[in-house]
Each structure stands twice: as C-alpha cells, then as structure tokens.
Amino acid sequence: MSDQNAPLAVICAMAEEKSALKEHMSFMETHDLLGRTVTIGRLDGHDVVVAESGVGKVASAVTAALLAREFGCRGLVVSGVAGGLDPNLHIGDTIIAHSLVQHDYGHLHDTALTPFRPGIPPLGEHRRDYSFDLPPDLAGRLTRVAEEIALPDLPRDLLSPDAPTAHRRPDGLARRVLMGRILSGDQFINSETVRRRLHRDFAAQAVEMEGAAVAQVGALLGLPVVVVRCLSDLAGSESHLDFQRFVAAVAPGAAIVLRRIIREL
Ligand code: ADE
To answer: I need a labelling partner for 227 at 20 to 30 A (CA). Which of 73, 85, 127, 258 fits?
Structure first.
C-alpha cells in the first residue's frame, strides 16, 4: 500500500465487528462522517480510521469512499463475519480474500445470473473479469502469514452437545485461517440450495454483504482492499440462528487475523 504515513481505513458493517477491533486500539478520538462514527487511533502501532458502515453494498461503498477522501487513506480493509459456503469449513474458521465477487451483479435469465464486472452494463458479451483480485505479491505475503496464525478455541458453551449447531465443529479441531474467494451481495443467505449454488458457480469459500463493494471503490481510487471474515454461520437453513448465536464470539477472530496481517499492508 502506498504512502506509509497515511492511515488505513477499516470498515465494519456492524457494532460487534467494530468493537472487537476497538478493544485493541490506542490514542482514540471520534469524528462524525455523515452520521457514521469514525474512530481514529492506532492499532498495534499503525494509524487506522475505523467506521461502522451499516450493512450492505451501498452502505459500505459510501463509507469506504468517504473515509478514503476525508482521511487520505492508503488502503481499505473490511473486517467482520461471513457465512461459510465451502462444506469443508466450520464456524470460527477465517478467510482472507484473494478474490472478491459481487454475486448479485449481472444479467438475470430465467434460471441463472451471468456475472459481470460491477460498473459495466450487464449486457452482451460475458465479461470474465468480474472478480476483484489482490495483487499477487500481497496475496503471497498474506498466504504465508495466514499459515502461521492460531486462533483460540470458541467458548465451549456455544459448542456444547445440546447446542443446535454442535455437530458443525468437531471437538478439538483447530480453527483454520486461509486465503479464499469471498462473495458479496445484498442478501443474507439462509438456504442450503443457494449455498450449494454459490459454492459451485463461483468456487467461493464465504459470503457476506460488503467486501466486493469496497473492492469496487478501491479499484476506482487505486487503493488496495483486504477483506478478513470469520465464519459466523454456514449460509444454510440454520444460518439465521447460527449468526445470532456466534456473531459476538467469532467477530474477535477477524480482529486477531487483521492485527497479524496489518504490518503486511
Ligand atoms: N454474513 C454473515 N453470515 C452471512 C450470510 N449467511 N449471508 C450473507 N452475509 C452474511
């Protein structure tokens, strides 16, 4: 990321995601930006401006553009939770995006959506460059760091045998941190059929509602965008219950990973 003296913008959609980061910040002051409270301070020695954007692509894109312009940010980071799409992943695993796709942008036919690059008319020849990808050197550095991160076990009471989702994280299995493709769209995914389709059509690991919109802003402004997401649910028929049960417990996982990778940004 360019001018190392400029701050990094960190965008969190929800309060739980922002407070997991604020706990580790120092020299904090607050600033109002069109109704969003921006916390300005330092995170492990790095200047950051952290905002709760609200949920969805428009809320996060507006926030990203405002932060970038108001504070002259050198890069954009999105930190928070997501739904897992890959059946090999479990609640509490964390994905760092090497590739971001707006899964709801494109040309809708009777039976399928052909994805297009956001910003260009979704008509005519299929545009294959619909994903926003990390530069290979940054992706390589983050891959190496990700392999070394160990996350603490989730609280046992959340995983107890009578918990509705207990079977999803086998006892004693270490939480994983890996690079992957993250999808974003203006929909909370609460369907096993849709989860399977998104995983198959996009070869993606996780789904959320902001990251690829911030990536579009980053592409326009020439800023790198890094998205870190800890899985709060598995996007299937119980995802609405899992999300509520796990959001506060897993949000700190994304903050831990961000604190480990921030020196690479
Ligand atoms: N963020 C967390 N879980 C999600 C889901 N299932 N769908 C979309 N965004 C999410």
So the answer is: 127
Which residues does residue 83 pair with via DSSP β-bridges, in sequence order?
Answer: 207, 233
Q: Say yes or no: CB of residue 96 within 6 Å of ligand 1.
A: no
pLDDT digits (tens, 9 = 90+) for 63-78: 999 999 999 999 999 9
- Is the pLDDT reported for residue 219 higher than 80? yes
Residue 47: pLDDT over 90: yes
Q: Is there a domain that residue 88 lies in?
A: yes
- How many domains does one find in the chain? 1
Distance 31 CA to ligand 1 centre (A): 29
Q: Would you state the pLDDT for residue 126?
A: 63
Catalytic: 23?
no
The count of other CB atoms within 10 Å of the CB of residue 241 is 13
The amino acid at 55: V
Q: What's the CATH code of the domain at 171? A: 3.40.50.1580
Residue 129 appears among annotated catalytic residues: no
List the structure tokens of 230: 């800890």
Q: Which of 86, 93, 210, 233 is catalytic?
A: 233
Element (H, E) at 25: strand 25-33
Is the CB–ligand 1 distance for residue 207 below 6 Å?
Answer: yes
CB 249 within 8 A of CB 97: no
Q: 155 CA to middle of ligand 1, Å? A: 21
Which of 104, 205, 207 has most ligand 1 atoms within 8 Å of its beta carbon, as the pocket-test mutant? 207
Predicted pLDDT of residue 79: 96
Residue bearing the CA closest to ligand 1, atom 3: 83
pTM score of the predicted model: 0.95
Ligand 1 within 6 A of CB of 242: no
Q: 149: which residues sit within 8 A by CB, 6+ positions away?
A: 94, 177, 256, 257, 260
pLDDT tens digits, 160-196: 767 766 556 777 789 999 999 999 999 999 999 999 9
